[in-house]
Amino acid sequence: MANHVTLTQFIIQQQREYPGVSGTFTSLLNNVVTACKQISHKVNRGNLIGVLGSAESENVQGEVQKKLDIITHDIMVDSLNWSGHLAGMVSEEVEEPVKIPRQYPMGKYLALFDPLDGSSNIDVNLTVGTIFSILRCREGVEPEVEDFLRKGTEQVCAGFVLYGPSTMMVLTTGHGVNGFTLDQDIGEFILTHPDMKIPEDTNEFAVNMSNQRFWEPPIKRYIDECIEGSEGPREKEFNMRWVASLVADVYRILTRGGIFLYPYDFRDLSKPCKLRLLYEASPMAFIVEQAGGACSTGHERMLDIKPESPHQRVPVILGSKNEVERIIQYHKEN
Ligand code: F6P
């Protein structure tokens, strides 16, 4: 144990190297960590504590909520609202930004999160996760919706936690990407995956193939060429993986490369894209870029998008740099 670096130790050390990162931020991150440990515990106990199954309600996206969607939202809010570090929050589960109760001091950061990503996987005991993004806020003011609508380049920190065979946190504060594994015996996240890097090339793609006939030509072309393998223009074989949990698919790409696509599709024009910009695509884009990969809509760098609404959806293409650039090129040629 003597040589093990805990997440708190790691952040404090980073703070010394980069004076812009304050003690307040370390403390805020500790609150996020505490919330994620609680979520990990609930996910792990599953039906032993009756948390699986549908809540028989719908969220702001019109998606059926699981009991755990609501439980994890409450855990995040209750762990973060009292600390005096936050001025407001946006959660996937509620329409309006969450205000800080009047009895608590107002802080200088904003938190945006998807408390339980991949929740369709929860009842089949597959990996789910929590995704979060931290922004700075104008000090001393109650934030308006506009305060949350900031480009991904303005994120102070982004991370996600995987509740899988191990519980892991992947984090960036803009100085590379590091992975921490929760040691259940001592209740601490330990640095196990320092300086994660995504290989520039890959022969593995992740996409929900059942949407294929609704895609635009550049995406169809890219995937068709992958499937043609060594007999097509790519002259090599490709492999496919689709966990249907963004956290799990991105984690795999961080460890061995790959490309993930949830592109625009015209199956239902009221929902032409699935993933949400502020608390899914943008934090993942920050992490992926910091690990040497790329993230785009096909037309625009994800981190450069100026958001228009808190629950805005975007097409997402992320992962190994050379493949993302190839798809961007296919969009230009189209
Ligand atoms: O938030 C949405 C999400 O669950 C992601 O985690 C995942 O990548 C995607 O949806 C899966 O979508 P589908 O059910 O279409 O495969």
Walk me through the structure.
This protein has 334 residues and is of the alpha+beta class. It has eight helices and 16 strands. It has helices at 7-17, 23-45, 67-80, 145-148, 217-228, 246-256, 277-290, 321-333; strands spanning 54-58, 64-66, 86-91, 109-117, 128-136, 157-163, 167-172, 178-183, 188-193, 204-207, 239-240, 259-262, 275-276, 294-296, 313-314, 316-319. The model has no long low-confidence stretch (mean pLDDT 94). Residues 117-118, 120, 208, 244-246, 274, 280 line the site of 6-O-phosphono-beta-D-fructofuranose (F6P).
Q: Total number of β-strand segments?
A: 16
Ligand set:
6-O-phosphono-beta-D-fructofuranose
Helix content: 25-40%
Radius of gyration, in angstroms, nearest whole number = 19 Å
Please state the overall shape, judged from the principal axes of the Cα atoms. Answer: globular
The proportion of residues in beta strands is 15-25%
Question: Between the first and last Cα atoms, what is the distance in angstroms?
Answer: 55 Å
Structural class: alpha+beta
Give average pLDDT, whole number: 94
Order of helices and strands: HHEEHEEEHEEEEEHEHEEHEEEH
Low-confidence stretches are none
Q: Main sheet: which strands, in order across? A: 3-4-5-6-7-8-9
